[in-house]
Write a structure and sequence with these properties.
The radius of gyration is 24 Å and the shape is globular. The termini are far apart. Helix 1 crosses helix 9. Strand 23 and strand 24 form a beta hairpin. It has 563 residues and is of the alpha/beta class. Helix content is 31%, strand content 26%.
């Protein structure tokens, strides 16, 4: 009878999820966030309960590890069994973790007592080998069911793990990485691994779920998110839920969304970013059912910070790491009288920004200065950097090395590729395919004036292929959204050759920039973007960023939007 009831419930869930797939298409990221259950009162008695605490997209906000460890300590005092998990993007984002290529992050996670994690795309920013070296020393289990080694076809990490609590409660965990990683990380650093994509992603997930037999609940640790950009290929967590049977709980990351529920009541939870919230899922040990779930605000990073649960040992460890890094990077080299916009959306992933203008001007200046170019060559130089690579705002006041390193944290170097005017049009068309929705590849530019008509549909062609592997993006079948009016004050020539000054992530085919990834004529200068920007600010701007120079975006792109 129990098996029959379970089968009926499973069929009902399948029907519900099928309907969810149709309806969830109507929800935006803002809708998921608006429905989130956020509480400051966590209750008093958790005897007979198992509490899962979760984080995602920490991005170097290392003070938060003392908070989640402190909240875990409080739940233990109130009688709960506890589990700590993270859903990816913990080894990149601030100089505090960048300086050690992610090692400081996993060290703090071990100190905080994490049990499980999945991988985010940024775990691969320093390369596959560096990631695996970092994971050798941790005391938590990292799960990934959809990334394999090309040489052997074997999974790089276990895909599943069963946790058995003191009460006998059995929870089955599986981990998934976004297939978008193949172009959201420098492809040259992950050339020996493959990410299951498109329908194969769902097959990998279903296979992982099917492995988790004889468990009370199946929990997905996903780095998929609900970004509009991910909707095109149905890579969102809600898309996966609609196609994979047997998942009871989804803990998610990637889109930086604070959410606790799907449009049709699915238990899908995510904590925003940088420990804005800590996620809580309460399971009753006797009924084996989810009893409650919500987000707890930490107020980390603003003046309201008063989170009352702190693990002092972890806090001291984080403070030690910060003090050492601050001593190296807190050197003022400039001032700015304007805020330099590092926002995601609206911001660098949706439109031209003053910070995007500054960065692209800086890298063009560096290449022209170092290259000893003739005037005719200079007239054919165009700067492009991907908006997703701009990670922070610089406020009015003193500017330090740490500020620039936080804005440009990836260690990417200034690189140059030569393309025709027609290929430049394809680059702009492909990298704005979903604008005005946010996209990491959105081109911040220098040296050109161009127009983007977002009222026209992107004409989707074949999927881009890089080094024999399918990416997550598509070539335009025609150019109908973008046009270029001039390059450095001269008429645009679709047959001319232009030098694209950019970064080595893009010249390797990162994001939507397959054209540059397959370009035959290109070179790397070896200087990092942050070093080029600092040199430009010091030498060209005399250490002063003013309202006159970069107070507002300079009108390099005209965007036509629907009224």
């Amino acid at each position: 009878m129990k098996k029959l009831v379970s089968l009926i419930l499973a069929l009902c869930m399948l029907l519900s999820l099928s309907l969810a797939f149709a309806d969830d298409a109507d929800w935006t990221e803002d809708d998921f966030a608006a429905a989130a259950d956020i509480r400051t009162d966590i209750g008093k008695d958790y005897t007979g309960k198992t509490v899962i605490l979760h984080s995602n997209d920490v991005h170097g906000e290392i003070d938060g590890y003392a908070l989640i460890a402190g909240l875990r300590d409080q739940f233990i005092e109130m009688g709960a069994d506890t589990i700590l998990v993270d859903c990816g993007d913990y080894t990149q984002g601030s100089v505090y973790v960048i300086a050690t290529k992610g090692a400081a992050a996993v060290d703090l996670m071990s100190a905080a007592g994490y049990d499980f994690s999945c991988l985010g795309n940024h775990e691969f920013d320093f390369g596959y080998d560096n990631l695996m070296e970092n994971l050798k020393s941790v005391n938590f289990t990292t799960l990934c069911a959809n990334v394999t080694l090309d040489e052997t076809g074997e999974s790089i990490l276990p895909g599943t793990k069963v946790w058995v609590g003191p009460s006998g409660l059995k929870l089955g965990f599986f981990g998934l990485e976004t297939p978008e990683t193949v172009t959201k990380v420098n492809p040259a650093l992950i050339s020996n691994i493959s990410f299951t994509a498109f329908d194969n992603l769902y097959a990998s997930a279903q296979s992982a779920v099917d492995e988790l037999t004889d468990v009370d609940l199946v929990i997905g640790l996903l780095h998929l998110g609900v970004d509009e950009e991910s909707r095109l290929n149905a890579y969102r967590s809600v898309d996966l839920l609609a196609r994979v049977n047997g998942v009871d709980i989804v803990l998610d990351g990637h889109s930086h969304t604070a959410m606790t529920v799907g449009q049709n009541g699915e238990l899908i939870q995510s904590t925003g970013t940088k420990f804005e919230y800590i996620g809580v899922v309460v399971i009753d040990n006797e009924t084996k059912a989810v009893e409650d779930h919500f987000l707890v605000p930490t107020y980390l990073g603003n003046n309201l910070y008063d989170f009352k649960y702190v693990n002092n040992d972890v806090a001291e460890k984080a403070a030690s790491i910060k003090a050492e890094i601050d001593a190296q990077y807190n050197m003022t080299f400039a001032t700015t009288e304007v805020e330099l916009n590092g926002a995601k959306a609206p911001g660098n992933r949706t439109e031209e920004t003053n910070l995007g203008d500054l960065i692209t001007d800086a890298i063009v200046w560096y290449v022209v200065k170092e290259g000893g170019m003739e005037q005719d060559e200079i007239n054919h130089v165009v700067g492009i950097t991907n908006g997703g690579g701009i990670r922070a705002t610089i406020p009015v006041g003193e500017v330090t090395k740490k500020d620039i390193n936080t804005v440009l944290p990836f260690g990417n170097t200034v690189a140059v590729a030569y393309v025709t005017g027609n290929e430049l049009l394809e680059i702009l068309e492909a990298s704005t395919f979903c604008t005005p929705d946010a996209i990491g590849g959105y081109p911040q530019t220098s040296g050109i004036k161009w127009t983007l008509d977002t009222t026209k549909e992107f004409d989707k062609g074949d999927v881009y292929v890089l080094e024999g592997k399918e990416t997550s993006y598509f070539a335009p079948a025609s150019i109908n959204r973008v046009s270029i009016q001039e390059v450095n004050g001269e008429p645009f020539d679709p047959e001319a050759v232009y030098a694209i000054v950019t970064n080595n992530f893009i010249t390797s085919g990162g994001d939507t920039y397959n054209v540059l990834g397959t370009a035959e004529n290109k070179f790397d200068t070896g200087i990092t973007l942050d070093e080029a920007v600092m040199a430009y600010v010091e030498e060209v701007l005399d250490g002063k960023i003013t309202a006159e120079t970069y107070g507002e975006p300079q009108g390099r792109v005209t965007q036509i939007v629907a009224e």
